[in-house]
Design brief:
This protein has about 120 residues and is mainly α. The two termini are about 30 Å apart. The protein has one domain. Helix 1 packs antiparallel against helix 5.
Length: about 120
């Protein structure tokens, strides 16, 4: 689960950078400094959260950041709602599939060390 969730947050950093850049360059944002401040803050928080996924509370922090990305639509524009919804779906999928893989690994028998390797 850790790898999938970290990957989602890492890609989200790049998407937030691109969305902030687009929103500030096409004139859809009246206060570009505020938009860049929010964008950079989100990027830093997402990057830190990617490293904290395996720790206690890491998934909760990830959920909070998903809400913040959605809330950034107030400043950046409605396109961030679309981006936020996509990443909420990716975040949920990473947690769901990651936990299934973790359970499968936990219940699988250990590999036989005497088995012949090819």
């Amino acid at each position: 689960m850790k790898v999938l969730c970290s990957s989602v947050l890492g890609i989200e950093v790049i998407v937030v950078l691109l969305a902030t850049s687009l929103a500030t360059s096409d004139g859809s944002v009246s206060n570009t400094r505020l938009a860049w401040g929010i964008g950079i803050a989100l990027m830093v928080l997402l990057a830190v959260a990617a490293g904290m996924v395996g720790r206690r509370g890491g998934l909760t922090i990830g959920w909070i950041l998903q809400v913040l990305v959605l809330a950034s639509a107030i400043v950046v524009g409605w396109t961030m709602v679309i981006v936020g919804v996509i990443f909420v779906a990716l975040w949920w999928t990473a947690i769901y599939l990651g936990s299934r893989v973790d359970r499968a690994k936990a219940t699988a028998p250990p590999p036989d060390p005497t088995a012949e390797r090819q």
